Each structure stands twice: as C-alpha cells, then as structure tokens.
C-alpha cells in the first residue's frame, strides 16, 4: 500500500520504518530541513515542507495514497493534514498530544479515522515490561474486550496439546500463535503448545480467568489482574 | 460595546458539557469546539472591558474541566 507519514520525529520515523519493513511504499513529509535530510539518508522518499499545506501533500502524491499518518507534535498541522487527506479519499490517522482530546476528536473530527496517543501506548508497554510474567495485555478492543498474549509455562495445562485440542470459553477467540523465539503467525490446528510458545487471545473480561487457567495455569492470578487493567488506567 | 474572543483549553474530553456551560454564561454569544492546541473559541459581546474579565476569568475559568483561557479583545 502507499502511505504518507507527516513528521519524521520519534513517532513518525519509527512508523515509516515499520511500514517499509513490511513492504509498503512510504513517503515522508517533513518541515525541518535537517530532519528531512536524515530521513532521506535513511532511504526514504521525502518531501520537504509543511504537511498542513495542500501543495506539499500534492507533491507527496496524496491523491494516490491509501492512508496518511499525521504524526507531528503539532495538533494544528496534524488536523489540517487530515482534512486535506480525507478530501483526497485517504484513510487518516492523527496523533494527539493529550489523552482527553481523544474523546473530542473521535466525536467531532469526521476527517480523522483513527487517533493515536503515543504516550498511552508507551505506558501500556512500560507497565507490561515492569510486570513481566507470562501474560501481556496487547490492546483494549472494547470496554470489556481485550487482546492478551499468553506464554506457555511449565505449569500450563495445555502444554503438549495441539491448538485444535484447546477449548477456549465461548467469549474468547484464538488470534495468533508463535513458537518460542519465532514471530507470531496465523494459528494452525496442528500447532503444538510447548514451553515458551505464545498465544494471542481475544477475550471478554468475564472469561479472562478461565483462559488464563487453561493456558498458563493457576499461579498467575495477580499478573492477570494487573495486565487486564493496564489498558484502562495507562 | 466590547467584543472579545476567548480561547479555551480543556483538561477533559467532556466537550459537550463544557461548551454548554460556556454558552449559558451572560455575555457569551458563540462557543465552538475547535481542532488544535486550544479546544474552544468563545465570542463574548459585553458593555464594558471589565465585563470581559468577568466572563473569561470568573465565568469560563470556573467551569470544571477548563484548564486555561486566553483572551483577545477585538480592536477593529
């Protein structure tokens, strides 16, 4: 897909790199000459200019882009860029600077499809890292729905079984599976669960405890409680 | 008559309630939620310059969830 990332600071450049690693075509728009040079040296196609100006986004071929990430630290620039990009039929993602604004933009900004508050994501990551253990909260999908990553331990009741033998509660779905030390992938019925393998599960809060008992065993209650609240209060 | 524009920064996502409370203040003729680093722009139309302070400092600043205001008095 074709993406435009506006702003090549700590959030934008990292996003651009991840997209490029996954094989996408990324153009960076950057106002600051030094930063633009750095992004060019990094091999990106760069348009130097203010991403809130239509002629600058036109140079970045906004009319052919699938999505635009307005990821600068300047809210006005980000919002103006989303307005222009939406006008050109792009999906729009806007970075905000304070968490309370998420609610306001979700409600009022039709030009913005998704809102990113990097500090919130960072806080969830930091909390997970501090907790350690074998359960990580990955994302809040809805108020009572969360994606969690479980690591199979010595005590996991399902250790040695295949995925087809794992009977999750009704309000839970297996999303992804990864062998120890390998990347996550689509779960296959004959994948076997061994020590250190990871399983991503979408689960309703009401069945988190059952899922935890099945995949990790009995001694992780506290970790689960902490992990489950990570998204909400981060 | 004195016209002033007050830029309001919130600290809460409850924009509807805050805008409603601003619109109820005497002297406020318009209040809009805006994109950017301020969250509302409020137009005030009052008799005396001192009334601008009454609306901005006492009225708007007293609303729960309002963090900061900046007032610009219109000159022309």
TrEMBL record, chain A:
<dbReference type="GO" id="GO:0005886">
    <property type="term" value="C:plasma membrane"/>
</dbReference>
<keyword id="KW-0520">NAD</keyword>
<comment type="function">
    <text>Part of a potassium transport system.</text>
</comment>
<feature type="domain" description="RCK N-terminal">
    <location>
        <begin position="1"/>
        <end position="122"/>
    </location>
</feature>
<dbReference type="InterPro" id="IPR036291">
    <property type="entry name" value="NAD(P)-bd_dom_sf"/>
</dbReference>
<protein>
    <submittedName>
        <fullName>NAD(P)H-binding protein</fullName>
    </submittedName>
</protein>
<dbReference type="Pfam" id="PF02254">
    <property type="entry name" value="TrkA_N"/>
</dbReference>
<keyword id="KW-0813">Transport</keyword>
<dbReference type="GO" id="GO:0015079">
    <property type="term" value="F:potassium ion transmembrane transporter activity"/>
</dbReference>
<dbReference type="InterPro" id="IPR036721">
    <property type="entry name" value="RCK_C_sf"/>
</dbReference>
<dbReference type="InterPro" id="IPR003148">
    <property type="entry name" value="RCK_N"/>
</dbReference>
<dbReference type="Pfam" id="PF02080">
    <property type="entry name" value="TrkA_C"/>
</dbReference>
<dbReference type="InterPro" id="IPR006036">
    <property type="entry name" value="K_uptake_TrkA"/>
</dbReference>
<keyword id="KW-0406">Ion transport</keyword>
<keyword id="KW-0630">Potassium</keyword>
<keyword id="KW-0633">Potassium transport</keyword>
<dbReference type="InterPro" id="IPR050721">
    <property type="entry name" value="Trk_Ktr_HKT_K-transport"/>
</dbReference>
<dbReference type="InterPro" id="IPR006037">
    <property type="entry name" value="RCK_C"/>
</dbReference>
<feature type="domain" description="RCK C-terminal">
    <location>
        <begin position="135"/>
        <end position="217"/>
    </location>
</feature>
From TrEMBL, chain B:
<dbReference type="Pfam" id="PF01037">
    <property type="entry name" value="AsnC_trans_reg"/>
</dbReference>
<protein>
    <submittedName>
        <fullName>Lrp/AsnC family transcriptional regulator</fullName>
    </submittedName>
</protein>
<feature type="domain" description="Transcription regulator AsnC/Lrp ligand binding">
    <location>
        <begin position="6"/>
        <end position="75"/>
    </location>
</feature>
<dbReference type="InterPro" id="IPR011008">
    <property type="entry name" value="Dimeric_a/b-barrel"/>
</dbReference>
<dbReference type="InterPro" id="IPR019887">
    <property type="entry name" value="Tscrpt_reg_AsnC/Lrp_C"/>
</dbReference>
